[in-house]
Every structure is written in C-alpha cells, then in structure tokens.
Specification:
By secondary structure, the chain is α/β, with parallel strands linked by helices. The protein has 2 domains: 117 residues, no CATH class; 272 residues, Purple Acid Phosphatase, chain A, domain 2. The chain has 9 helices and 13 strands. A 6-stranded mixed beta sheet has the order 6-5-4-1-12-13. α2 crosses α3. The protein starts with 8 loop residues before the first helix and ends with a strand.
C-alpha cells in the first residue's frame, strides 16, 4: 500500500490496519519501515490501534504527525520493556530447567552406576585383633579424569597418569594394606579427596580424559569394588572429605562461590547406597564444612582436604582448636599439598600430611614442586597415640 499525496499519516495508518489482506508483519513494516518478529508486530500494532481508538473516542480532530509519532514511539518503548521483562523471565526459567536437568543427569548416572556394581555381601570378619591398637589408611588427591606424561630435562618420564594407572596404584595400596589383617579386625579409611580433576582452571581442559560428572561416577564405581575387596579382610569405616577440585563452579567459575555444590556428595552417596548390603562397610559422617571428625584408639582425628588451610599448617591447627574450642583435636590429617609430612604441635598433637595418588602433576611441574605418589598407613595405640607409620610408595 502506498500513502496518497493528500493522505495524512493517521489516515494512512488507519487504512493499513483496516486491510485484513495484509498480515501484521507487513502492516508493521509499512508503518515503521522496519521488520520485526510477527508476535512483536502484532503486540505493537495493537498499541497503535488502541491509540487511534483513543483519538476517535476523545474526538481529537487536529493532531500533527510529529505528536502522533512521539506517542507511537512511547508506546513502542513500553512494549519493548515488556518484551525484555518476558525475555528475562524466560532466561530465569530456562536456567532453572537446566539446573533441574543437570541434577537429574547426576541422579541417573548414580543410580545406573550403583545398579551395575552391587555385589554380594562378604562374610562377617573374624580375625585376631590387638585391643589397644587401631589401624587407619589415608589416601588423597586421586585426580580422576586427568591424563598426562611429565618428562625431565633429559626426556625421561618422571610421572605418567591416567585412570588405568590410578587403578593399578589403588590395587597396590590394597595389597600393601591386607597383611595388616593378621593383627587388625577393623580399619578406618580416610579419603582426603580431590578424587577428580574437575575443571577449576580452563587450562586443565587439554589434560582431561573425562568430564566432572563422569569422573565422579567412575571414581565412585571403582571405590565400591575396591572397598568390597578390602571388606573381605576388615571391618571398614570410610570417611570422605570435600575438596576444591570436586566443586562445581557452575556460574562464575570462582572457587567457593557455591561450596555446597560439590561432587564429593555424589561419591559419598554412591558409597553409602552401594555398600548398604555389606555389613562390613560403613560411612563416616561429614561435618557441615565437609571435614571428617572421628576417633581412633581414643584420640580425636580431624581429616580435611587442605585447600582452605594456610601454608603455615601449625597456625591452621591452632585456628581449628581455637574456633572449635568445644571439640578436642589430637591429630589433623591433611592432603592437597601432594607430599607427606609430619609436624608436632604439642603433646600427642600432630599434623600428618598425606601424599597423593596422582603424584607429580602438570601443576607440580608449573610450580616446580615434586613428590612421589603414595598413601599412608597409621597405627594408633590407646593412651599413647601414633605408634607406627608406613608410607606406601606408588611410583
């Protein structure tokens, strides 16, 4: 439709809107000289029609084109605001749907993994035990999902890692622990976490073999098999601490933004559900901050990953005992640093650093801090404390 030479803009617009042979998109383009989505055109033209009806209703006979255009533009802006509001609501709704879908995916993977790993319960353990002694096994920093090979300056391999090597090392840990069953009926396993590599830096993407959720499910499935084997010889209690690599940094990518969104919860749930029919395995509870607090041979043990601790571990120990003044702490077990160590902080008050299953990593190479892969077996005696420590060397 073409505007007649003697036709006012209002009359021209009325003629366009009255023509039912032209759809709303074409009507909008004829009036405003611009194309928009059909639904948007329909809404905005309804506003134009309402304005024209108002003009007729109030019997406004003289209005210039400039005034009309200003009113039309105002109406158009208001409609645009409403469209933005609807878009924002849609984004929030879609984000909620994505979160629900993500959780359902995790749940489905957990259920599938547990169904595939359920095993017959072993017989109840009947073995000699030293009444005053208790046994603990400490592992940390498995970093499932990463794959790398690190060489020295002469091209010799310092450390190589993938999920197959992880499994080999864990079976070696089991093999070096089982002989203790001659003297011990029970064992407490402390997993100080960083079980998966996760994605805490984008630079890690090149070294990832699995995604975060798949890595957590893989680790949980393996640990169910591993714990079942351990439970053939021991009554097993296992505690699993939260860590930084298992955090799901969903929105900002920054650490501790959502500390409760931690895949260690998935791992603990898999262990708890997957061992429900095994009378020889039980899961130690976690504290509200993701640490494990329990007793061994009458001594109070606090097991933490260590990502939130200060470099001065003695100062961290002091901070814990000050803040949690109602709770005694005799020994603090800590991972994260990837090397073993021992620090006395008082009479029967010690910090024990646990080595990593992964060993020297890409990050180790970057900061030039190297330590062997390993695990630690501890023996505590009632009224005496730690009386024996065996470091299992894995590479």
């Amino acid at each position: 439709m073409i505007r007649e030479s003697n036709e006012t803009l209002i009359s021209y617009i009325r003629r366009i809107l009255a023509n039912d042979d032209i759809d709303k998109g074409e009507q909008y383009e004829l009036i405003f000289g611009d194309g928009v989505a059909y639904d948007t055109a329909r809404k905005q033209l309804r506003g134009v029609q309402n304005l024209l009806d108002k003009i007729d209703e109030e019997e406004i006979e003289s209005i210039n084109d400039v005034s009309l255009l200003e009113k039309i533009e105002t109406a158009q802006q208001n409609l645009k605001k409403e469209r933005i509001k609807l878009s924002s609501e849609s984004l929030l709704y879609n984000r909620k749907l994505r979160e629900e879908a993500r959780q359902e995916l995790i749940d489905e993977k957990i259920i599938e993994a547990i169904e595939n790993i359920m095993v017959a319960p072993p017989p109840l353990i009947i073995a000699p035990t030293k009444n005053d002694l208790e046994l603990s096994l400490c592992i940390a920093d498995e970093h499932i999902g990463c794959e790398f090979e690190i060489k020295d300056l002469a091209g010799q391999v310092i450390n190589k890692y993938n999920n197959q090597i992880f499994e080999q090392r864990m079976w070696q840990v089991l093999a070096e622990t089982l002989p203790y069953s001659k003297d011990f009926k029970k064992i407490k396993v402390f997993d100080l976490s960083d079980a998966i590599e996760g994605i805490i830096h984008f630079s890690q993407l090149m070294n990832l073999e699995y995604g975060a959720i798949d890595s957590a499910v893989y680790f949980g499935k393996f640990m169910l098999r591993w714990l079942h084997e351990l439970s053939q010889k021991f009554m097993v209690e296992i505690g699993v601490a939260d860590s930084n690599h298992t955090q799901m940094r969903i929105l900002t990518g920054k650490k501790n933004d959502f500390p409760q969104e931690n895949l260690t919860k998935v791992i603990r749930a898999m262990i708890e559900i997957g061992t429900a029919n095994n009378p020889n395995i039980s899961l130690l509870p976690c504290t509200d901050v993701g640490s494990v607090y329990t007793q061994v041979a009458g001594f109070d043990i606090l097991a933490v990953h260590g990502h939130e601790e200060k470099r001065n571990l003695e100062e961290s120990f002091k901070d814990y005992t000050t803040f949690y003044s109602d709770n005694n702490i005799d020994y603090m077990l800590i991972g994260h640093l990837h090397y073993n160590g021992f620090s006395d902080v008082g009479a029967n008050k010690c910090i024990i650093q646990i080595p990593s299953i992964v060993g020297a990593s890409i990050h180790s190479q970057k900061i030039k801090k190297r330590a062997n892969a390993g695990a630690t077996v501890l023996v505590f005696e009632k009224d005496k404390g730690l009386v024996d420590q065996h470091n299992i060397i894995l590479n």
